[in-house]
Amino acid sequence: MGSRLPRTACLLRLIALCILLTHTAAYFGLTGREPLVFLPGPISNDAPNGKAHLKQCEQMTLTRRQKRLCRREPGLAETLRESVRLSLLECRYQFRNERWNCSLDGRGSLLKRGGEEWSENNMQVPRRLRFLAVRTCWKQLSPFHDTGRLLKYKYDNSVKVLSVTNAATGETELAGPRRHRQNLRTTDLVYLEDSPSFCRASRYSGGTGGRTCAKDTTCQSLCCGRGYNTAMRLTSLSCHCQVRWCCHVECQTCVREEEVYTCKNA
């Protein structure tokens, strides 16, 4: 798995297609050469108005066209900031069993560079209908988990490519393995560098020591062959639930003892 992880950077940039950045900018995702840069300050959920809104647009690293759009649409900057938070949560969910689990603690902003194009130019979204006096159509994004699952699938099937110079034109091109060269599409994920293994704590990640794993499925890979510790834990859960008339469910709270497996430290 370690040799396939550099795709993290390209996957997360796609997750964040509609995300622009705040003034405390940092990379979203990792490559083999970029260290973690921890930046202070949580993302604020307060929606500024008037001059505060315009100031927030100016603080983002945007093209002139994007800044004009940001200034023209009140609330757009705040929506993009919220999308940073949602994408981080989805990233952590999709990578919960990976050695790098989207651990970006301490970063107030997740992208160093905004997308060159806005999401409406890159993302096809379903149309829904509603009925008023006339039939009206509008664009709507698919559920966030659906997008996350699709991008994780593309990540798992991404292809490593090389950066080569075309002798005839002098331009830099991407070349994949011969068996994939004819089958690659513009919607496929490709990557240039292998990521670190993320097994040990380093400037790239906190390592996998202490991570919770599943004994029969993820412990071997997640713990990097170091083994795991077993401990007993008491957990509370709802049990003996009954439906009461009308539309009310009553449950008891049961305590269960279960085994918990955590990766040993390096």
Topology (elements, then pairings):
Layout: H1 7-15, H2 51-59, H3 64-72, H4 76-94, H5 119-122, E1 127-131, E2 135-139, H6 144-156, E3 159-160, E4 162-165, E5 172-175, H7 178-181, E6 190-191, E7 212-213, H8 219-222, E8 228-244, E9 248-263
Helix pairs in contact: 1-6, 4-6
GO biological process, one term: cell fate commitment
Signal peptide: 1-26
Keywords: Developmental protein, Disulfide bond, Extracellular matrix, Glycoprotein, Lipoprotein, Secreted, Signal, Wnt signaling pathway
Structural class: alpha+beta
What about the largest sheet? 3 strands, antiparallel
Strand order of the largest sheet: 7-9-8
User: Total domains, how many?
Assistant: 2
Estimate the strand proportion. 15-25%
Please provide the ordered H/E string of secondary-structure elements: HHHHHEEHEEEHEEHEE
Number of helices: 8
Low-pLDDT regions = 1-5, 16-45, 106-133
What's the overall geometry? extended
Radius of gyration: 23 Å
Through-space gap between termini:
18 Å
